[in-house]
Amino acid sequence: MNTLKQICFPLIFVPALWTQMSCSNSNGSKNTTENTTSPGSVQTEGTAPVPQVRKTGAFVPNELGRIMVLEYHLIGYPEDVWRRTPENFRKDLQMLYDHNYYPVSVKDLAAGQVNVPAGMTPFAMTFDDSSAGQFRYLEKNGKLELDPDCALGIMEAFKKQHPDFPITASFYVLPAIKPKLRLFAQPEYQKQKLAWLIAHGYEIGNHGWFHVPLHKLDDAGVQKHLAMFVKEIKAFIPDYEVKSLALPLGMHAKNRILESKGSFEGTNYKHDAVFLVGSVTSVSPYDKDFNPLAIQRVQAGDTPTGPAAFTKQLDQSGNRFISDGDPNTISAPLKMKARLKPVLEKKFVAK
Questions:
Q1: What pLDDT is stored for residue 117 in this prediction?
Q2: Helix H or strand E segment including 315
Q3: Are 98 and 54 in contact (CB under 8 A)?
Q4: Are 123 and 17 in contact (CB under 8 A)?
Q5: Separation of alpha carbons 312 and 289, rounded Å
Q6: Residue 185 CB-density burial (10 A; 0-12 exposed, 13-18 middle, 19+ buried)
Q7: Is the CB of residue 73 less than 8 Å from the CB of residue 210?
Q8: I want to staple 314 with a disulfide (CB 3.0 to 4.6 A). Which of 28, 149, 233, 320 is the partner?
């Protein structure tokens, strides 16, 4: 894949979570047999649900600890900086499950509505660039199926196998980029795929009209690229409201206010969350330094700044977000209270 991102390695190394990346066949080929099956009739593969409840053991709540927002790009072969193989993506999900992570939406994270079971650590999952390996249809016996080796096929199968792990993710798509990245690379199914994502609890997010870094644009250009994205998506799904943005290449606009809201030729956009590119965990949404318009992400991969490495560091440092299971309280060690947003002080419970 051409380099579409620039990794930001901060001077301060802070623990974060891991992620993995997009889907395509090893030779880049795709099975795109045309079919008019409706979104609701698409089949998914996976083992039948196995009733189970994860056990956390003894824990000390720390809802001022850090959270991982995982950043994936390509899913396919071979493993590379911006690519996770299907096998490694499955391994990522299993690692998260085994270490008591619990999926949350980026919308809930940005709003500070992190409601997960006691002893669990919330995490959010994002996919950039809408490449083929993220969402691919195959035709089998006259019906469309999710490719079991694309990101969505893997996630849906894992969800069936682990009903106590309700996977969700945000897909930052590109509606006007070159065909191999344009809305998952099967043009005959573009509308159907977008509708399927929404119907199955996933989010569609703004990644720019065709991936131009916003710092290269003037104010009018920024608004044009972000608003044209909205216009293109609404042409497929008119009632859908895009609520978040992943900055192309992680580059800020000169006028950052325009990242969150603006207008072009009668089309408005408003983002409640803006995501960066990098290899850093996010502070808790209850932290005084949390900014929903500049949320850090952790790039997937088996690296020193990947999810597995950050998990180990967060556990060793005691700086991992661990839920108390009560959405009405914010529990953390007393020494962490200085990090709390002042407006949340009445909810704080020292542990």
A1: 96
A2: helix 307-317
A3: no
A4: yes
A5: 24
A6: buried
A7: no
A8: 320
Give the closest residue to 299 by CA, choosing from 345, 246, 335, 262: 246
Residue 42, pLDDT above cutoff 60: no
pLDDT over 80 (residue 34): no
Query: For the packed helices 151-161 and 86-98, what is the interaxial angle rounded to 10 degrees?
Result: 40
For 16, residues 6+ apart whose C-beta sits below 8 A from its C-beta are: 66, 68, 279, 280, 281, 282, 296, 298, 305, 307, 310, 314
Q: In this predicted model, what pLDDT tens digit does every residue of 44-77 receive, in sequence order?
A: 444 444 445 688 889 999 999 999 999 999 999 9
Structure tokens at 170: 């945000």
Do 214 and 208 meet the contact criterion of CB atoms below 8 Å apart?
A: yes
pLDDT at 37 > cutoff 80 = no
DSSP state for residue 215 in the 8-state scheme: G
Q: What are phi and psi of 35, to 5 degrees?
A: -155, 145
Q: What radius of gyration do the chain's Cα atoms show? A: 20
Amino acid identity at 220: A
Q: Please, are residues 273 and 110 in contact by the beta-carbon 8 Å criterion?
A: yes
- Helix, strand, or coil (residue 55): coil
